[in-house]
Every structure is written in structure tokens, then in C-alpha cells.
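S.,

Sequence below, as promised.
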Amino acid sequence: MIELGRGLAAALLSALALGMPAAGQGSMEGRGESRGEMVPSLVVAGRGEVRAAPDEATVRLGVLAQAATAAAAQQQANQTVTAMLQALRGMGVRQEQIRTSELSLSPVFAPVRPQGGGAGEDLGPRIVGYQASNTMTVTLDKLDQVGAVVDASLKAGANRLEGVAFGLRHDEAARQAALRDAAAQARSKAAALAAAMHVRLVEVLEVREEGTAAPQPRYEAMRMSVGTALATPVSSGQLDVSAAVTVRFRIAPCPAQGGCGETP
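The prediction came back faster than expected:
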């Protein structure tokens, strides 16, 4: 049974069917499996990989503020985030492209020394201030905006930059191409094995898609460039999309006269 979506199944079948005889032809007609009989078969695995240009980018940046009180630290962070949002909207970044990915407020501790400056054990930590953190995730479908978003945010007061990740939102074509490559590799391996064993490939009995893997967002560290007139350079490169399949072929002995000839 082929357990795939219609588009991916079509891609696999088209890659596997090239050169195969129609089902039922050859010296072994019918499907013995349906009667519980053992069917001579050959199982191979194939893997394919293609490269595709990313079509979206995700930037994570924000602010870390520290003050004597929790309210003051939170206010400083809020002011910076407000300035960042204004800067991004001024560039045409839509509200739905921006989300808060981290929001925290925590005390800052320091050890308490004995009075008089003498040596001795610390009396334990005490709160000396508070840190407020606010990190935003900005998703962009225009990759040429990445550097400008980083620069605008830094100028607005951002002091945390976790990096940028490139992704592939529309990956169906790349997945199908990887599946076709995986199926073609499986068929090539089956043909080589069949020729070595002096048997012939009759038909495909089963195809299993072992999975396709699109790249997961991974944030690459970027160096902050506050106070510089140079724009932040960003290169998107290409992403790898891979697929793996397992294919089972029905095989039959080569004819006594003439042999198998060219493996289909």
C-alpha cells in the first residue's frame, strides 16, 4: 500500500514506473500475496536530497533592562519595545508578522558581606535590582528586509539579538523533487541488485515513504552593530530538503534462453 498524499504519491510512482512492465506481465502472473503465498521480492531503500532557496526569514531580537525596582525595569523595557514596534511598522512590517516570544522579570541578587569589611562567610544574597526582558519574533516574507529590520531595531534601543533563521514555507515542490530522487535511487539500486543476482524486476509491490525533512528554523548568531553607519549584511543561502523511501519489487528468474538482457 502506498501511504502518501496524492501529489507525493504521483511523484513517487512516476519515478518508479519508468521502464517497468505492466502489472501481470512476465512469468509470474497475478499477486500471490493475496492468497497468502510467498512472493519473491527485493526490498531497497532510497534517499534523495534537493536544495531550495528559502522564502521566509525569522528574526529574534529584543531588550534587556535593569533598574533598582521591578516597575522601573519593566518600564524601560516597555519603552524600548514600543520604539522598536514603531520603527518596524514604519518599514511596512505588519502587526501579524510580529509576536512576543519571551517576556520575563527577575530579581538581581548580590552577596551580603559582613559589616566592617572583615573576612568571613557571606550572610546570603540580597536583591539589588531587577531585570526585565522582552524578546520579539519577526517573520518576514521579503528576505531583503532582514538587515534593515535588525538595524532599525537596534537604533530603537534593542540590545538583544538572538539571530536570524531562514525557512521554507512553500516546500511542496522541493519535497516532491526529493521524493523523485529517492525513488530513482531506490530503483537504480534494485536494478543493480537484480542484475547481480540474475533476476528481473517485474513490478512494484509496495512503496513506503519514510519521511521528508524540510529544514527547521535555526537561529544563526549575528553581531550587533549599534552606532555604525553600515547596514547589517545578511545572506540567505539555500536549504536542504531530503526524503527517504523503501520500495519492494516483485522479481522473477531470468528466462533460460537469452537471459534478462538489460534490466528495465
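The two ends are 22 Å apart (CA to CA).

Coffee later?
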